Amino acid sequence: MGKKYTIGVDYGTQSGRAVLVDLSNGHEVADHVTPYPHHVIDEHLPGSGIRLEHDWALQHPGDYLEVLRRSVPAVLKESGIDPADVIGIGIDFTACTMLPVDTKGQPLSFDPELTDNPHSWVKLWKHHAAQPEADKINEIAAARGEAFLPRYGGKISSEWMIAKVWQILDEAPEIYEKADMFLEATDWVIAQMTGTIVRNSCTAGYKAIWHKQDGYPGKEYFKALDPRLENLTDTKLRGEVIPLGTSAGGLLPEMAEMMGLAPGIAVAVGNVDAHAAVPAVGVVTPGKLVMAMGTSICHMLLGTEEKQVEGMCGVVEDGIIPGYYGYEAGQSAVGDIFEWYVEEALPAYVKEAADKEGLNVHQWLEREAAAYKPGQTGLLALDWWNGNRSVLVDTDLTGMILGMTLLTKPPEIYRALLEATAFGTRKIVDAFHENGVSVDALYACGGLPQKNRLLMQIYADVTNREIFVADSKQTPALGAAMFAAVAAGAAAGGYDTILDAADKMARVKEETFKPNPEHVKVYDRLYQEYSKLHDYFGRGENDVMKRLKRIKKSAE
Ligand SMILES: Nc1ncnc2c1ncn2[C@@H]1O[C@H](COP(=O)(O)OP(=O)(O)O)[C@@H](O)[C@H]1O
Ligand SMILES: O=C(CO)[C@@H](O)[C@@H](O)COP(=O)(O)O
């Protein structure tokens, strides 16, 4: 059999990108990005111009098909390969990014009669307007002692499926009624390619409170939320939930024609972006924490048992790699904190100095900050500029820098911010490790590991663990292509398991970041101080951050 290929499509917040991958070695032969024509819709609905409320974030489902229409032919053309050698296609998506569909599986926003109602559109993962529903979901679950709550670190997020569905019911009961099903966008795109609706175990588990043994929470719970939701899971959330790597069906002839692919090739069941990255860095066994590092960090880890870990986002059987429990945690701001400093709080002389040397400001600050030894700045920061997602799960917490003097310099503050995010990751590492889900090494992908070596060394020193870095430009898309290879199967030139695919296709760079024992000692001392501040401000001893927010609100 000659060379075979699959295509992975990564659906991000702003754009979708397709990658054509050589199955013999995981080489990314060609890639192409399609920015979403309608962007993130957070102010006005396209067409009608209807104004959206604060905290809304929508997308246009047609944009997802546009990515397939433009990017798939583009990678085929760039690669010059014979399309007949592409044996499968897989996708990964932001999540929970969800939409209501009619009995034909068409988005309600495509219906001219419903298109002016914002609730008929796709709600993007960062649509945060369902917080009142999320609060009630948590309150009622806690009061009823629902068994699912500990699996989500004690809190269900407003970003997730049930809160978003309930917001639709609360604010637009007519849309709720018209919806035949609510789908994750990843499952909807797969259904467009195959003609069959199936749900994937990753989004069902992490975002819709589905459990492999117990299924969804019981009817009594949903009835306690709102009697109209009693039968939600049998009706509008119905559908088979199938594990990652399974084929969702063959590619429909009309979609094959649109993309320039052969009809009938395997289409892998949908997946989530951060989770797809895990096998793409070769992680298919426990003990290795994968960090998708960018504006925020998603932490993913495998385990052999279902353990309760404070503040994790969730644990789902088969949720990342079939056969294992997949754990997810996260920090809601990382790169965003560095960007805040650079954009909002940096003296002009630093920008001028960087310009003069032809460096960007981050590069200049990194070089200068690297000249300090751990502890030498005398600074310590709490990394809560965008609240705390793990382990405190509290969006009301805010950032803090301690220890400043008249002599404090910008690179010292920059270094303290890098260190603060590393301490935040150590909290997560410790929470897993101490609860029996071991973390022996770290694996990093995303934009940050390529951009800032000092940051990576600090993470190695603070966590006292070696860090392996992805050797792929598009790690989630590579993961999606690997799952497509598994959906196609070895007989077609793919692989029978994701373990086999990872063995041949996953790559990390040869160079790793190893902890420096001298630095580890100093950071251990600083981490003790970080932990004291973390608990003092984050666990209720001093709620000054929340009081400040209240005072601010009353002053507005
Ligand atoms: N040299 C740098 N060091 C640290 N952070 C950086 C550097 N350059 C850019 N950033 C930060 O990286 C983030 C973007 O990361 P990236 O992985 O590209 O994005 P995304 O999370 O959107 O995929 C921004 O928040 C930016 O502040
Ligand atoms: O929530 C998840 C994964 O669980 C992500 O899809 C969401 O945070 C979006 O991440 P990106 O901005 O695409 O890195």
UniProtKB/TrEMBL annotation:
GO terms of molecular function: ATP binding; D-ribulokinase activity; ribulokinase activity
Keyword field: Arabinose catabolism, ATP-binding, Carbohydrate metabolism, Kinase, Nucleotide-binding, Transferase
InterPro entries (alphabetical): ATPase_NBD, Carb_kinase_FGGY, Carb_kinase_FGGY_CS, FGGY_C, FGGY_N, Ribulokinase
Record's keyword annotation contains Flavoprotein: no
Pathway: Carbohydrate degradation; L-arabinose degradation via L-ribulose; D-xylulose 5-phosphate from L-arabinose (bacterial route): step 2/3
SUPFAM superfamilies for the chain: Actin-like ATPase domain (SSF53067)
EC number of the protein: 2.7.1.16
Gene3D superfamilies registered for this protein in UniProt: 3.30.420.40
Record carries keyword Mitochondrion: no
Annotated Carbohydrate kinase FGGY N-terminal domain residues: 5-277
Catalytic activity: D-ribulose + ATP = D-ribulose 5-phosphate + ADP + H(+); L-ribulose + ATP = L-ribulose 5-phosphate + ADP + H(+)
Coiled coil: none
Any GO BP: L-arabinose catabolic process to D-xylulose 5-phosphate
GO cellular component, one term: cytoplasm
Record domain Carbohydrate kinase FGGY C-terminal: where: 290-488
Similarity field: Belongs to the ribulokinase family.
Name of the protein described by the UniProt record: Ribulokinase
Species of provenance: Paenibacillus oralis
Gene name of the encoded protein: araB
